[in-house]
Structure prediction request, 678 residues.
Amino acid sequence: MNATDRLLDVIQRGLTGPVMDEQQFDSEQVAGGIRHVLRQYEIRADRSHVVNLDDGLADRVWSAALDFLASCGVYCIDTGRVIRFSREEIEQILNDAPREVQLGAGSDAVHESYRLVGEKRPPLNMGGPVGSPVSEALFVPVMLSYAQEPGVDVVCPATLSTLQGCEIRTRSPLEVLAAWQEFDGMMQVLERAGRPGMAVNCGQISISDVGFLSAISRGGYRPTDMHTLGMISELKVNFEQLNKVAHAIKQGGIIDPFANPIYGGLGGGLEGIAVLLTAELVALNLVFMAVCHGSSPTHPFNFNDTSREIMQATGLSLQALARNSHLMTNMTVSPVGGPGTKTLLYECAAYTTLCTVSGASRILGPRSACGTVQDHFSGLEARFNGGVARAAASLDRERADELVQRLLSCYEDLQDKKPVGKPFPEVYDLSTVQPTRAWLDIYDEVVREVSGWGLPLR
Amino acid sequence: MRIPTDLLEKLDAALRLGNSDEAEALAKTMLERGVEPVALVQEALVPTLTDVGQKFQNFEIYLPELMMAGEAAERVTTLLEGVMLRAGKPSITLGTVILGQVEGDIHDIGRNIVGILLKSHGFKVVDLGRDVAASAFLDAAQKEKADIIGLSALMTTALPAQRRTLRLFEEVGLRRQFKIAIGGGATSQSWADEIGSDGYAPDAASAVELFKMLMDAPSG
Prediction:
């Protein structure tokens, strides 16, 4: 089936599937369904490791996730119905999923492809603050700080806070114009970086379908860019999201959606989130026709994904996916720390190492300071992230586990303090768009430390 | 009268397990034995649900368990509210709260947690859901005769909608009739100060304390 036919099939299921109250879906289908498969498949992680070393456990997580997804389905908010696929249908669709994709054009193109657990070829590095709020005046220098980094393969914009000084209102012409401003700004950035064909993860400004659709229309974002959209937690979609999919399919863009399960939420703790994350990434393919499958499992209080249990769940899920499917998976690093702090770099090193050895095909971000503090991000941390990804690809899981545990000990106790660091103008020289000596000194210090701990960054 | 210890322990267990039927039956037994509804709330519901909320904060339990305990507590609260109403006594609720995700924000789970904890502590909660227009907050606040309005924003792009909602209350001259608090991952105390909200809660547990404090604070 081609993508249009598949989307029509999804919409039909959304229009005719079983009617269900949303609360019932949450409590019985999602929470109850996860509890059921955890028992059925006897899923219990070894908490002494952060990087999963048990292949049998990863395979049970996979089986549990597919059974759970076939039973639970995806809730369509607009129709109050459940979109369901049988396990056989899910497996057939997964068989047909793409294994690789070209991102970008010409000499700036890169190829993303499915990675195995422990594969020595490093994941791609998508640099950018992933929708974090940015001042209008800083948009171009901030994004240039990422695009100019040789170790950054593709870029993901920040989100404009204003449009010519006006607050941007969802579903209004302001959002449409802001989406075009994001596009214009990104094209300027790529030109100045000398990488005009580099792929952009576009539409970060647009919450609604109207903003998203406008800037990927004629004269806007290109078919070689990635179109991002999110599944609503947990396992829910609405027509607004499916409108984005429909438009992206007809525009020929690369569909690069995400689903971010909440730790401690309907999926519960470590094991439940591992199963839920696995199911949600598969669901991105079923419902959104995803080419790439992204996530940043979210801590309910700190909003990061670099805490111990979330990393344990993430690694387990990535391994389940990489061992049992050929889906391309990408993970956004969402550290609590911000620019100018060692915490940020320790968190990036831990999360990126975990994802690299567990089979992720692309690393995103970092979304420094969890993406909640305006202008608190810079390209230097993406340089660091890319270096970690390349170095970590040479590690086996046992060495990676030791390293991640050591890194966790450097930042775990600091996360509640939210060390958000400094804004971009205090860590970069705006006239040269280069990091300040102070920020580079911190960077160099952490590179030396982490290299000494066995991650060959230097 | 004081609540018999054995009944108190049984109700505590029923609430923690989310056994709504048993919790309701135990509450009826307590009422029949002369326990005052207010005492039942203060000595049984609030301590148990406070502890359940703390366990959730510590990840000793997760949202499904919190939801089940919250539903059981709500069943008991509804029973007690009916008793008070029939007796012509004042409501046992601490106050009426309107909750919602501001326009453009489609998240749910964080606000749901706040709602459960507020209900467990005796607030009447009217949850307007996700992606709520400023005018809908205004309508609901008037219709429900709300005491507090809680505006949630998890996405930084939804922050302007929090400000717009506050401004609408000001523009129509109703700002001083209601306390308006903000929360959610994208918000902060400095943002709360900037837009002139009455309070900011960084997480669900502190939201309960904030809302209790706002109920005690003078209007205007």
Notes: The first strand of chain B starts at residue 95 and ends at 101. Chain B has a mean pLDDT of 91. Residues 95-216 of chain B form a domain with the Rossmann fold fold (CATH 3.40.50.280).
